[in-house]
TrEMBL record, chains A, B, C, D:
Catalytic activity: L-tryptophan + O2 = N-formyl-L-kynurenine
Catalytic activity, EC: 1.13.11.11
Binding annotation for heme: 297
Complex formation: Homotetramer.
Domain of life: Bacteria
Residues bound to substrate: 40-44, 111, 311
Key words of the record: Dioxygenase, Heme, Iron, Metal-binding, Oxidoreductase, Tryptophan catabolism
The protein's role, per its UniProt record: Heme-dependent dioxygenase that catalyzes the oxidative cleavage of the L-tryptophan (L-Trp) pyrrole ring and converts L-tryptophan to N-formyl-L-kynurenine. Catalyzes the oxidative cleavage of the indole moiety.
Pathway: Amino-acid degradation; L-tryptophan degradation via kynurenine pathway; L-kynurenine from L-tryptophan: step 1/2
Entry protein name: Tryptophan 2,3-dioxygenase
Cofactor requirements of the protein: heme
Organism of provenance: Kangiella koreensis (strain DSM 16069 / JCM 12317 / KCTC 12182 / SW-125)
Length: 359, 359, 359, 359
């Protein structure tokens, strides 16, 4: 490490001359300054700073996971960076508490000046969504149309190009597909697992049929539900059925990737799978935290403007409410719990498989 | 204050002999102890302790707000206790983070032993819901049926009796109805306010029609939305229309109470209205925090059991997801923001009204 | 409200071109970029954005509290802004969780490039400290010397000028001194209060002497402590003694201000005192939250660099640890609890005093 | 998994009859119930429930770490349970926010009835302290004496017996001592590391001497500090010097354990060391969170009772403040950062060592 040649001064290092000269309320231009507009600007600027950091982490993770062989020490670095994203997301949520100290009346003092600006114009946030893997086709209709319409041409083109590049979703899917050890010599893991599942489902069916605390209507409903679970399990092991469900949007990941992810979830306690399991869990956590953030944000908007129109001319909260759950990136990973079976029913891995997994 | 006659010993004061002897995992009875069942028991016990405290506060607030005259120092005490409930609700949410350290596989180790027990059997939580004002008729269908069906007779009768008694919702409604100063000599507040609203809506309409950044379809959609807002405003000042919307479930509070609440929201900065405004806001906050709790709880259940059946034989998460938003107690107060207008458009109160408000 | 003449575009409104072009790691200049330096820059920039917002609020509060008459609706606005500062402080603390995802090894990768920059060069933070009322003379020795030495001349002069202007501490002190109703006709509040205090202290002395669970040494220690409390109480009502203790640094506020603050604390439930009490409590809370922040920050630094020298060449954490408790602004308000007596022992205010207080 | 033979009912499963019948305010016995005493009881009961859960986890971790060979999947389970303890500690801290809604005046309403009960009589908390490794000899004087004096004989004996048994500190120390690979064939790790350290310290010395932004006094101070760091480094590799410092209380862990812990910290990115590193970090985090809890608790007590005597007749807050930092269990692990050197200066491990580490 080379010595620095020029003493470093904190305000210059942080470029505070730029940073602290970037708050210019519109209300000042049109007459009296609305006291709370500064807060509105600063909270959104803080969001954008953190979005930049999230992008910095995603951009560092992507090439690592895209390598044809990802070794364990890399998984460990990826996990640390994903966990940093979690902490940032926590702060994104906490910042809503600050914004909520602004009352509706205070917001109405400058709302009109911002028309038609809108949070939907945050290029960095859209960049995060695209890089994590939210394809246009997954968006709800309203979102599909308006996602690009409110942007200027440069911003729109930038994002449309980005959609063509591999996302974190793609990288994770490929990394999972490359995972070995699902068939090992005579050991056909999925055959044994299928038997265990059948036993579990039969058990659940018996529990339901014996349940005298349930009304007949409830029983029928539950048994129906169980049948659906059964069908989904069947599809999991049948490429044709799986791909059909994938076309219908029930799955987004390939069958191979889903099976690998399930295996990692089932045998997470194997040292070799610790890192991969934390990685999958971290991805679900990112979804979880963005969902919480969208939810809190929706409620805040609703509290702030009621059913009034948003600054971008959109029926603000309704749209937001719908995206809350829809825009998950790693839904398939989240849904895996449906396929878990009790540890006691889990096939024991043969010693040579365990040895092979730990090299 | 009398001196205590017998020295107090911490473990006895807290009755730890009872408290710490109340954790008996079912798994132990049926074979090997599942390590995580203790956590499952303790987290729910901690919930129940806090529910008891919330009930203690609600029971102390109810008689105060039910008096024919509630003076300001009482409002202040009520506010402190409502804010205590908020802090407790924060901890209820935080406790989910603890429960989430249990993995689905760990839960499957003892889930079957708990059938058909279920969180829906928490009498204290139902008691809170009823005391805050959630009538059976407001519940979603699934909830309506199952709310009582899983309880033993004693518990069911206790709660059904409770439904007959006045709730916090009822007390708040009556307290708002009793509020004075909406008509004061020649000053007819609502007439002036109606004019201000008309001006604002006309302004919003013009903004929308001029909005060349909106497509025609979007414009039509937004203008339609604006018309609905207009209609709701009209109903606000027309008893007949209001009561019709009330019958349809659009409002739950009486017109008089809604108008008082709106007035308090509009003139919250008047010293006399500070306390009442904080009170209304605190009630909305209680809703908000329970909604967050239900939401986090739903997601946790989904992550824990996937689409599998819940311990109570219910399709756990689906039910929970629907109650998340539906079971708000003070929806009317939350929706008031729709009726706010910019401070600059707000009618100035005549000096004699202000003087009268501050006695 | 005038219509805006030019459509507002979110990225321009937030001046993202400046904001997002202000992150330039030193490590890049000296060779390979250290991945985590971006985080280091962004977390400090986010701090500075929030400091700007805190200053915005303080600057709006100061003139209000400096008026010769502060009416209740102003108190209410001040309280809302102080509570906004609390929420911002919560986020300042939460941001430490993000920074802690950087490991010591990662920090060592670029630490040397930052020499001698240091958080002590945050002009805005020093501005906050000065505006809240931290005089140079209250700082610990180390801090006194180094507070200005690391700044360039312009920054130093700016802050030294600021020290000459009235702070929030000064404004609050004067506002408290102006408070009426401590003597009212025949009612000499403090005489009655003194009697109540004597009774309480006599009671405490008896409790201690009767305490057979205490050893003789412990008893002597406690009784000594009680005597000190007695002496401080005496000083409270004796201008000469009070001013002596003030010279010694035991008090910072004038006797008149302290007595007003005590009165507000004792009779907080009086409607008229609700606002003032929340204001005093909010000031203590600001102290509390900065103390927590300093404490968490110290621990983080210690974990990051051990007992190594800080980037500013200072023995980082030792200094920080000492300022944690020392740099409270409203110590006197915090210490008031010593002078509280049980509600049952509190003199009842005569009706005419209560009436006068509520006008 | 066997089917349960008897349907499970939620209120019975949680033994709510015991749990919810354990709140009996003393104030009720002596006259009028103090409204807030219920809160005081419930918050402490919630603490005790969580302490029980923490003990449940510690008791499950201890035997695992005490095995002569701890395999990686066990480390992984231990880590999950330590992280559960973190989440519980977060809730312990959050609960203080609830207690702080009680005002000093409200507490004074029932404080006297509780004399001489005190939180120092929480057997479970002392049990946690002892099990984690806080020996009597490490306590500050005040704590040493009073730790046992306020307990009844049964409780005292129980804890004194516990002090004789191996603690988590002991188990971790032994586990670290057993760690292999510090010498491997020709590769003498610590010799190479010592050279790297000398280079780093020489670099730091030069930086300081060149620092024209430091006054002479500051330079002397810093250089002195650097010399101390040098001496501690020397001791690290010299058994005799190390043991001397250990006698003086500068270290608590054996030299072998400290060196293993340092190695794990330096090469944490090696897959084989991931688990062990997270384990060490989790232990430090437990300390950190208890320190935060003690600190917040102290401040809360101070705010509640000022410098008045605590319910246990102790000068409450002074004692608490001193224990805040002193009662860390894993101080040695926390202090390791002093011995870290920049990653670029770190000796590269020979391939055969890396291969051996990963088996």
């Amino acid at each position: 490490m080379q010595k620095n040649t020029k003493p470093c001064y904190y305000p210059e290092y942080l470029q505070l001359n730029k940073l602290l000269d970037a708050q210019h309320p519109e209300s000042t231009k049109y007459g009296a300054e609305a006291h709370d507009e500064t807060l509105f600007i600063i909270v959104h600027q803080a969001y954008e700073l953190w979005f930049k950091q999230v992008l910095h982490e995603i951009h560092s993770i992507l090439p690592v996971l895209s390598q044809s062989h990802v070794d364990e020490s890399n998984i460990s670095t990826v996990n640390l960076r994903l966990e940093r994203i979690h902490r940032i997301q926590d702060v994104l949520v906490d910042q809503i508490d600050i914004l909520e100290t602004m009352t509706p009346l205070d917001f109405l003092d400058f709302r009109d000046y911002l028309i038609p600006a809108s949070g939907f114009q945050s290029i960095q946030f859209k960049e995060i969504e695209i890089l994590l893997g939210l394809k246009s086709e997954y968006r709800i209709n309203f979102d599909k149309k308006s996602f690009y319409s409110r942007l200027n041409e440069k911003d729109r083109n930038y994002l449309m190009d980005l959609e063509e590049k591999p996302s974190l979703f793609d990288a994770v899917e490929k990394w999972l597909e490359r995972m070995p050890f699902l068939e090992f010599g005579d050991f056909k893991f999925w055959n044994i697992f299928k038997d265990a599942v059948e036993t579990m489902l039969a058990h659940d069916e018996k529990v339901l049929k014996d349940a005298d605390y349930l009304s007949d209507a409830e029983k029928t409903f539950q048994l129906n539900d169980l049948e659906n679970t059964h069908a989904t399990f069947d599809a999991l092991f049948d490429k044709e059925k799986y791909d059909e469900l994938k076309t219908q949007g029930r799955f987004r990941m390939s069958q191979e990737a889903t099976l690998s992810a399930l295996f990692i979830n089932l045998y997470r306690e194997q040292p070799m799978l610790n890192g991969p399991f934390r990685l999958l869990q971290s991805l679900v956590e990112i979804d979880e935290k963005f969902t919480t953030w969208r939810y809190r944000h929706t409620t805040m908007v609703l509290r702030m403007i009621g059913s009034k129109i948003g600054t971008g001319g959109s029926a603000g909260h309704d749209y937001l409410r719908q995206t809350t759950q829809n825009n998950r990136f790693f839904r398939d990973l989240f849904n895996l719990t449906t396929f878990l079976i009790p540890r006691s029913a889990l096939p024991k891995l043969p010693d040579e498989v365990i040895k092979a997994m730990n090299f």
